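Posting here for the record, re: xanthosine-5'-monophosphate.
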Amino acid sequence: KILILDFGSQFTQLIARRVRELSIYCEIHPYNNPPVIDETVKGIILSGSPFSVRQEDAPHYDFKASHGTLPILGVCYGAQYMAHFNGGEVLPSSTREYGRANLQYIKKDNPLFKDVPEGSQVWMSHGDTIASIAADYEVIASTDSVKVAAYQISGTQTYGIQFHPEVTHSIDGKQLIQNFLVDICGCSQDWTPDSFIETTIAGLKEKLGDDKVVLGLSGGVDSSVAAVLLHHAIGKNLYCIFVDNGLLRKDEFESVLESYKHMGLNVKGVDAKQRFYDALVGLIDPEHKRKAIGRVFIDVFDDEAHQVQDVKWLGQGTIYPDVIESVSVKGPSATIKSHHNVGGLPDFMKLKVVEPLNTLFKDEVRKVGKALGIDNNILGRHPFPGPGLGIRILGEVTQEKVRILQEADAIYINNLRSAGVYDKVWQAGTIFLPVQSVGVMGDERTYEHVVALRAVESLDGMTADWCHLPYDLLAKISNEIINNVKGINRVVYDISSKPPATIEWE
Ligand code: XMP
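Prediction output follows.
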């Protein structure tokens, strides 16, 4: 495997993605808490950083401990660090170097630049520049304005590059990363969904033996893929619980339960609708609603889990971005992100946790799911929040509002599907607004509810833009909703991006 030591760059996860796209396994660790370097580690990549090496609180890492024995690639800050603290000097650039540049000089036959042509476009993003390097450092690439765009420490496999090969604007970045990983580190490209599945199932078998595992299915991609992996490993010892909280989409509970059974999972569907509705009476504040829904879920789940004799483990669909220890950009101390899946275990469920997907990114989970043969109606599903329609009904949640919203939402989603845009949209949903407005139907004046339609494009939900859905499609959806869903006389479309808005309204 490859170790990526993170100095807090926004691009660190992107480096990991590029490595894994080459079918090579890698892990991200904070620079100040690296794991033990054993013989499984084939090379180290040092990330960029929002810090400057000239800052007093610049993050430090003892690269000399591995330098000379393991290949090292320093990217941006990583490169500046190894130059500055080893006989060279890093200074502020006279102009900030941002954006496209071209490698006018590339040293012939340097293995890092194999099949990278002279003139190749690279992406720069830095305020400092490497002004001088020690005598045993050799410049292996330059741009017009950056002489030390890349260096190698002579006689070693230690490299530094000032540009970002991990972003797609660096046209030959992937080739360069491959050169480092395959030719220099000697990695073999055999980390594939199939090999992941094979080793994960074997590992789960060994870890779990004859133990029983309970797992909460949500209908989403992560919990479903986690369940299928566990199912392959321990079969009927996996007890899946799928709770109907009364806040799912129309008919979703029944259809997803059916898919799970079809997949051979040992799954129990639990109708707990009323418990959730009861807990939501009188609640208006979104956070209060979230807490109530979360609390009831834990109670229901716990009741069900207690019915499984001698259960030892809780299975979870936690994925890698939730567990990566992030380096705080405010100070060089490592902090751990808080997330609803991490540490969210109630004390009274004294179960050990098994998380088969906690080394995978979301797109990798989908690939693994595909290789496992999981149905596309589960793998291709839009993200859906845990509290479900509970946070898409603004204000107090009632069963009647849920019914109305489910009807409107089903019309919306079905239309997205039949127009062929469902898969192009990252997430879509309908929001029940806490207002009534005047309308006219036939000769009668109406005074009914309003729903908003939301559809966004996004990569990871952190930022998002509203989808420019065709007007004709919006018109058709609006008509269908108003004509078919009693209680709604107005439909609006949300044209806000995130930030400053969020994807959900609550
Ligand atoms: P926001 O509204 O914060 O949403 O832009 C970003 C993504 O997170 C989902 N979301 C949640 N998921 N529990 C969840 O499991 C929640 O309380 C929650 N709130 C928002 C949202 O659907 C979107 O995909």
